[in-house]
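Hi, here's the filled form for the chain we discussed.

Project: internal
Contact: R.S.
Residues: 121
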Amino acid sequence: MNIDELEFKDGLIPVIAQDYKTGEVLMLAYMNEESLLKTIETKRGYYYSRSRQKLWKKGESSGHEQIVHDVLIDCDADAVLLKIEQIGGACHTGYRSCFYRNIEGDVVGEKLFNPDDIYKK
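And the returned structure, exactly as it came back:
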């Protein structure tokens, strides 16, 4: 598979970060071509922030980086799956996974840190 064969929509492709040992889904984000290439090259999670309109490295402010063990592409070449080792929490709200609530709104995930202690303004 060549990066040129991937289906970037408006320059972005959705990416799922999954714990490489447990299979737990930790987050969904987006990549542009630059962040995907940087992730492959460095074996660290890099993404594209749609709100800030810029490349960002997971953990650049928190220290909670991702070590990438594998990069997989889905059958339609329009989504990426990163099998990662998450150092600290994946979610900026302090939880291990961004998927920490069920549909009823109950918290079912593990809170690892207080975001106010990490993301000081």
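Let me know if anything looks off before we file it.
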